[in-house]
Specification:
The chain has 1152 residues and is of the alpha+beta class. Helices cover 35% and strands 14% of the residues. The protein has 38 helices and 39 strands. The strands form 11 sheets. It has a 6-stranded mixed β-barrel. The radius of gyration is 33 Å and the shape is globular.
Length: 1152
């Protein structure tokens, strides 16, 4: 199917559901009588529409057309457009503003909205305005205010916003901000307090980084106070209007500017080439040098590298920085990797004791910060040493699970397949890869080889023949990690081989005497990664490895009969400190470095695919107040007989009574809105009355007869008492502006299908974002005939689609529902079947319309439409379900992830059913506080435009294989921009279809193969998690075990215990019956509201839970006296509060 035809069919399906849901909404059971979510316009119109909520004069002023003109001149998403449109708006070319400051403010907001694609609310809620400040010599400078919702803009956009503000500062001649010494130090103090006492910042700059930035800022960054805590130092400063912590300020300074300075400066440079003049941030290159030292761990003052510093107990480290034996860096993009996701071998996942699973996040040393993990079986798996001394390379993940207890040491974790596009997008230098099969193949082709060859499996004799004929280095399968052994180990191995013999295989003597003499040689054999077996008193290599190792060392002709090797290795070794140089002097053909660079990594967030639940897991947005009890149960409120809460005022003229619904629950006639005037304590049908000074409120705090509403809802859907689900949960109260509740019938039906409602009336499943460019029908559980019906009529080679093993390219709006069997949560297919059945029953029983979905089996879900949306966004993207993955991740096209302004670095997105979104979403349910419009589908995009999605997609490579140039330049560590590889950016410039032929460099047998659910999620408690974590770390050669134990205690356990001790002394108290929270317990010892029992909110167990594991770790790994004394002090504090345990209960296992 052609792309345009695909989009047309998708739009027809969307229109059909819009028509149905509009018909249903017209029945009057919802806050508004029509669907409240418009389909997306162009990005330019979205941008203007968003900011016109603040500046209505922008609508139809010509700004939209001007943005499109700039896009045609400079390209879509070019940063120059941001500066140019802000420049002209601030000049009031399109519409007038009340002041220069307002025009600057409008320019900033439109520029921000453009850089965030017009799909997040940060330009209207995250950036809160511009003010004038006075320098020390009384000149005017600009103060930019930010609040918490700036997070939704993303780190790069918030960094660019600061540069944009400085551009307008310079344009209008405002002075630079001149911070005092105290104001500079206040920045460090506030960031530290926020990071330590409120929440971990995604990136916490060092003191040196922070003070440097604070000193050189050309504008002042400010914001409203957001926390109840004051800064610990530098209070009462004249030009800072609060002593309280400010989330917006901290997010912009740390996660925006400090973290993304390099990318922000690159975007500024790009705009400068098009004539933009902005000099206030010219100090950034100097800052970037400081930042890079810290990121790479070169600055000793800053401690360990960022990725390792924030270690969480139970989540293992897989490699200390660049440590041998960690993940070997390899260039490539699999079918399910790229766009910030990497791949490892399925056996690598298994050898980590199942901690690493498909979708698990990795925090890595370089070149990016985080990435999601998928699998690829064309790359190298782990090499391990068993307890009997044998070394094997693991290729089968199922066998690894059985073998895990026999592994003594993980010598090499295996490859990490890293897409070139991610280095290009991060503006990074190339990393040196190990010598791999695809590199060897490129060199072979360059020398004139033109036959078909499976270059992953080349027998030794064929490899020698090809090297002889074409003059290429020896095939990577037959070379070893020569750079990873010392000259002493090499010499000892060489002498050991002299004492060995060949009898079809290489046999090295390993009796008690030889063990002592050749211990270094045995270690060299292990570190070289050569598979071998320890059999009685010998070490034996398989035939292929025997030929290869001897050829590497200069023995060109392998003996055909039993031969002692002493005479073949009689000459002295060349004198050199470089083992690889020595090997190359001995070998007939060039031996390349198989190792390259190793990448340090640790486990980040575990993978996720589960139904989203609000606090209390409500089924319906209907207040039950305190009468609902601690479970917020509608039935419990019915037993009380009433609910006291804030409800809207509607009046049914037919029944002559008030109600909380827009449609009377008794006679189903339309009701009229009433208003309450608190100053005169009267109600009226008019919003304003003569004898009141106030505008009437459409709601009132009142008691309602909940039993009547519940009975009418039950009757509406024809439920008897027996039909009712055992528990229907409401909310304590509504935070929306109108206070309009959902119809109770929706809650009854959701509870029937075990579904929970979100703040906006929708049902959502959250899942880790994973990329997918192509798939096999058998991998997604969809028949070939069904795929043909969906428009998949040919494979990636252009052949007609006929069997389930053909590889097909994924279309941009199509997604796979996460349906892993191994999960503690409900499967995705079951969730969406329940949502479909809920919608059908709702249509039939509440709206008196025919069922639409009619789902009986999971196969019936294929072809149905949904919505994808990322947290903090205010726009959703239409998706189509085409199958199921056996993973806990949302597998979708990179374009889909880019359209929701995310990448695949381990974060999650929501999947919803389109019918549910259109029928049940209402803006009237959204919280009225700042940030309330975030994470709500205010608009839907039914057609992805490759040029109007997140600009990271522009660097995505379009290729079936990388060029030899990449590997040659990588050896020199040049900048990634020097490599010529076709990207989406180039495809768009050439006017080609950007959705076709994305390609991949590495195939895999099955995208679902590997560990599905991380053992981190399956292990019951933290003690078990840490135990398994340390068992794994002890096996990993690439990890410092004692340092890991120190980090667990220092970065997690001690902080947690101290924090909980502090909270214990400041805690509130809770009633177990009605959930009432009180600062102090009443003297009576009982709840004043319901006479319930009062309990602590911070418990003894929560404080002590990490004490024993921490003490055990410190003792086992003999950690520093300082750390042990720290733990001893904490133990003393805990004992002084709770008393010492006289006797500790032990488990039976403690005596075994």
């Amino acid at each position: 199917m052609k792309t345009e035809e695909y989009f047309k069919n998708l739009k027809e399906g969307v229109d059909e559901i819009y028509s149905l849901t509009n018909q249903a909404r017209g029945k009057g059971f919802d806050p508004v009588d029509s669907v409240e979510i418009p389909l997306a316009m162009s990005m330019a119109e979205k941008v203007v529409g968003l900011i016109s909520t603040i500046y209505p004069q922008m609508m139809h002023s010509g700004i939209t057309e001007r943005i499109l003109e700039f896009e045609s001149e400079y390209g879509k998403l070019d940063p120059t457009v941001v500066f140019k449109i802000a420049d002209e708006i601030s000049d009031q070319k399109f519409c007038k503003f009340s002041s220069i400051l307002k025009s600057i403010d409008a320019g900033i907001r439109v520029g921000m909205a453009y850089s965030t694609l017009g799909v997040v609310s940060s330009p209207i809620e995250g950036y809160t305005g511009i003010e004038i400040g006075k320098t020390q010599d009384k000149k005017d400078y600009l103060v930019a205010n930010f609040s918490g919702p700036i997070r939704s803009a993303g780190t790069t956009a918030s960094c660019l916003a600061l540069i944009l503000i400085d551009f307008l500062r310079e344009k209008f001649g405002f002075a630079k901000y001149d911070p005092t010494e105290k104001e500079i130090k206040r920045v460090w103090s506030e960031l530290s307090d926020f990071h330590e006492r409120i929440t971990n910042l995604q990136y916490m700059p060092t003191e040196e980084e922070t003070l440097f930035l604070a000193k050189h800022m050309p504008i002042q960054v400010a914001g409203d106070p957001s926390e109840k805590l004051e800064v610990s130092n530098y209070k009462n400063l004249d030009r800072i209007n609060t002593n309280y912590l400010r989330s917006g300020f901290c997010l912009v300074m740390a996660e925006g500017l400090a973290q993304k300075a390099a990318k922000g400066y690159r975007l500024l440079d790009q705009a400068r080439k098009n004539g933009i003049k902005c000099t206030g941030f010219d100090f950034l290159p100097e800052y970037i040098e400081i930042h890079e030292k810290r990121t790479l761990g070169k600055d000793k003052k800053s401690g360990p590298p960022t990725y390792i510093k924030d270690l969480v107990a139970g989540r293992p480290i897989y490699g200390h920085p660049s440590r041998s034996g960690g993940f070997r860096f390899r260039y490539g993009r699999g079918r399910s990797s790229g766009f910030s996701a990497v791949s490892v071998h399925p056996a690598t996942m298994a050898v980590t004791d199942g901690f690493l699973a498909i979708g698990t996040q990795l925090k890595i040393e370089k070149p990016t910060k985080g990435c999601a993990v998928t699998t690829c079986d064309e790359i190298e798996g782990p090499i391990v040493k068993l307890k009997n001394g044998s070394v094997i390379q693991l290729k089968d993940s199922f066998k690894v699970k059985k073998l895990y207890s026999e592994i003594e040491e993980i010598l090499y974790l295996g490859d990490i397949l890293f897409p070139f596009s991610d280095l290009l997008n991060r503006n990074a230098n190339l990393i040196v890869p190990g010598y791999v099969e695809e590199w060897w193949n490129l060199e072979l082709i360059k020398k004139g080889f033109n036959k078909t060859l499976n270059y992953y499996e080349v027998p030794f004799e064929s490899a020698v023949e090809l090297s002889e004929k074409y003059g290429v280095p020896l095939h990577p399968k037959h070379i070893y990690y020569w750079t990873q052994i010392s000259i002493e180990e090499f010499s000892n191995l060489y002498n050991w081989i002299k004492s060995s013999w060949v009898d079809e295989k290489l046999v090295l003597p390993f009796s008690k005497k030889e063990k002592e003499i050749f211990s270094l040689g045995k270690r060299a054999l292990e570190l070289l990664g050569i598979p071998h077996q320890v059999i009685i008193e010998n070490v034996v290599l398989d035939k292929e490895s025997s030929k290869a190792i001897l050829f590497n060392l200069g023995l060109e002709s392998f003996p055909l009969e039993k031969t002692f090797l002493k005479e073949f290795f009689s000459k002295e070794l060349p004198k050199s400190e470089n083992v690889l140089e020595i090997v190359n002097s001995l070998s007939k053909f060039e031996i390349k470095d198989k190792a390259g660079e190793f990448i340090g990594a640790r486990m980040g967030r575990p993978e996720k695919a589960k139904l989203r639940k609000l606090i209390g897991s409500p089924n319906v947005l209907f207040p039950v107040g305190n009468q609902g009890g601690r479970l917020r149960s509608v039935e419990a409120a019915c037993e009380v007989g009433y609910v006291k809460g804030t409800f809207p005022l509607f009046y049914c003229e037919n029944c002559a009574q008030e109600t909380v619904y827009r449609k009377c629950e008794k006679c189903f006639s339309k009701t009229k809105q009433k208003y309450y005037f608190s100053d005169i304590k009267e109600k009226s049908f008019s919003e304003k009355v003569e004898y009141s000074q106030k505008v009437g409120q459409p709601y009132l705090t009142q008691k309602i007869n909940i039993q009547d509403y519940f009975n009418s809802a039950k009757d509406l859907i024809s439920f008897t008492r027996e039909d009712l689900p055992p528990l229907i949960k409401g909310v304590r109260g509504l935070s929306s502006e109108s206070k309009i509740p959902e119809h109770l019938s929706k809650g009854i039906l959701r509870a029937k299908y075990n579904l929970q409602v979100n703040k906006d009336g929708t049902i959502r499943m959250d899942a880790t974002e994973l990329p997918l460019v192509s798939f096999r029908p058998r991998e997604i559980g969809t028949s070939v005939s069904k795929l043909r019906d969906l428009g998949y009529d040919e494979d990636i080679e252009g052949n007609p689609l006929e069997n389930e093993n053909q590889i097909i390219e994924l279309m941009p709006h199509d997604v796979l529902i996460p349906s892993a069997v191994e999960t503690p949560d409900e499967k995705g297919e079951d969730i969406f079947k329940n949502i479909c059945n809920f919608i059908d029953e709702l249509l039939q029983k509440v709206y008196s319309l025919p069922a639409y979905y009619k789902i009986k089996t999971k196969e019936d879900l294929i072809g149905k439409l949904g919505v994808c949306m990322a947290p903090h966004n205010c726009a959703g993207v239409i998706c189509r379900f085409i199958g199921f993955s056996k993973t806990l991740g949302l597998l979708a096209s990179p374009y889909m992830h880019a359209a929701i302004r995310r990448d695949c670095d381990g974060d999650e997105a929501a999947i919803m059913l389109l019918g549910d979104v259109l029928l049940n979403f209402s803006r009237k349910f959204l919280p009225s506080h700042r940030g309330g419009t975030q994470d709500a589908p205010l608009v839907l995009n039914a057609k992805i435009d490759a040029g109007e999605v997140d600009d990271q997609i522009l660097d995505f490579e379009v290729t079936r294989g990388y060029p030899l140039e990449l590997y040659n330049l990588a050896e020199k560590r040049v900048h990634s921009s020097k490599v010529n590889i076709t990207t989406i950016r180039k495809i768009l410039k050439e006017g080609k279809d950007p959705f076709r032929n994305l390609g991949f460099t590495h195939n895999t047998r099955d995208i679902n193969e590997g560990v599905v659910c991380s053992s981190y999620k399956l292990l019951e408690n933290m003690e078990e998690k840490v135990k398994h974590q340390m068992e794994l770390v002890e096996k990993l050669r690439s990890v410092d075990t004692a340092d890991t134990a120190r980090l667990i205690i220092d970065r997690h356990f001690i902080r947690d215990m101290r924090g909980n001790l502090r909270k214990f002394s400041m805690q509130e108290f809770r009633c177990v019956k009605c959930n009432e929270i009180m600062r102090r317990p009443p003297l009576s010892g009982k709840c004043v509201a319901c006479d319930g029992k009062i309990i602590f909110t911070i418990h003894e167990g929560g404080i002590k839970k990490y004490l024993e594991p921490a003490l055990n770790l410190a003792k086992k790994y003999n950690l520093s006296p300082y750390l042990q004394q720290n733990l001893s002090l904490i133990k003393g504090y805990i004992d002084s509060i709770f008393g010492k345990e006289l006797e500790k209960q032990k488990a039976i296992s403690d005596f075994l």
